[in-house]
Amino acid sequence: MEKLLEIKDLNMYYPISADTSFGGSKSFLRALNNINLDINKGEILGLVGESGCGKSTLGKSILKLIEPKGKVFYEGKNILDFNSKQLKTFRKKAQMIFQNPYASLDPRMTIFSILREPLVVHGIRNKQEIKKRISEIFNLVGMNEEDLKRYPHEFSGGQRQRIAIARALILKPDFLVADEPVSALDVSIQAQIITLLKDLKEKLNLTILFISHDLGVVKYLSDRIAVMYLGDIIELSDTNSLFTKTKHPYTKALISAVPSIHEKTLKEIKLEGDLPSPKNPPKACKFHTRCSECMEICAKKEPEIIKISDSHYVKCHLYD
């Protein structure tokens, strides 16, 4: 498979305010911990994990919407070194669909204006070309052209997300980051948007990083899945192997909790305790405080990434 994106040693630190007037030192929350990940051309890579584990931070980091440390190579060039002109060119190739369609669309603009704006910013000012491209994309996402004169508040959540998808596609990108694009929608509407994304991927030959906390959705949509826990990628595999040859105890617990009408291969595994604070994560293996298979070494040494097969990797002492 040809690599589109290579993420190398990616770290993201958020400053935490401290009262320095009383001798307190400024501290940092480490949202991403040495992330190494490749995304192949034409695939949908699912990224799953609990809230607060760093999924959205990773999505924003690889588009340089925030400033991480490390390297992100897109078609062989490190985008974290790009200047503003290079970054503007990169934005045509890589776009983001945000989680909340109620907040991501400007309520004061008509839908036509929302879709026209990216084209004008990127130097496309021919009225006929703008009209043609907007019409094509709007039909592609299943919306009617007469709706272009309306405002975002006149649409349902599912329709707004279709508009947000159209805006992300208007510049004909190759790569999309979809940050929990269905979590704010009703279940019946979720299915429509997921099917739409799958169809668009095939029609437009897109590569998608699909971020979600719902393993059921990710299983249906993704070619490969990466599992995150407190800023670490702890398991990476093709979708079939992740569900049939699950390795990491945390992944096993996640999969066991997915509702199913069929008989489950895994009995439900209930994790003890709460998710530790990312401000003060456990030392060594971050999962050892909740793991039923914890060994003495887990509290002393951070596990290495172990290769199970050509497409399956796990970060766990059980496989050393």
Mean pLDDT: 90
Assess the beta-strand content as a share of residues: 15-25%
Derived structural class: alpha/beta
CA-CA gap between termini: 28 Å
Question: In angstroms, what is the radius of gyration?
Answer: 21 Å
Write a structural description.
With 320 residues, this protein is of the alpha/beta class. It has a domain at 235-320. It has nine helices and twelve strands. The strands form two sheets. Strands 6-7-8-3-9-10-12-11 form an eight-stranded mixed β-sheet, with helices on both faces. A four-stranded antiparallel β-sheet has the order 2-1-4-5, with helices on one face. Helix 5 (157-169) packs parallel to helix 6 (187-204). The protein is globular and about 65 Å long. It starts with a strand and ends in a 5-residue tail after the last strand. The relative contact order is 0.13. The model has no long low-confidence stretch (mean pLDDT 90).
SSE map:
Elements: E1 3-16, E2 27-40, E3 44-48, H1 55-61, E4 69-74, E5 77-78, H2 84-93, E6 94-97, H3 111-121, H4 127-140, H5 157-169, E7 175-179, H6 187-204, E8 207-212, H7 215-221, E9 224-229, E10 232-238, H8 239-244, H9 249-256, E11 305-309, E12 312-315
Parallel strand pairs: 3-8, 3-9, 6-7, 7-8
Antiparallel strand pairs: 1-2, 1-4, 4-5, 9-10, 10-12, 11-12
Helix pairs in contact: 4-5, 5-6
Keywords:
4-stranded antiparallel sheet; alpha/beta
Give a summary of the structure in a few sentences.
The protein is α/β, with parallel strands linked by helices and 320 residues long. It has helices at residues 55-61, 84-93, 111-121, 127-140, 157-169, 187-204, 215-221, 239-244, 249-256, and strands spanning 3-16, 27-40, 44-48, 69-74, 77-78, 94-97, 175-179, 207-212, 224-229, 232-238, 305-309, 312-315.
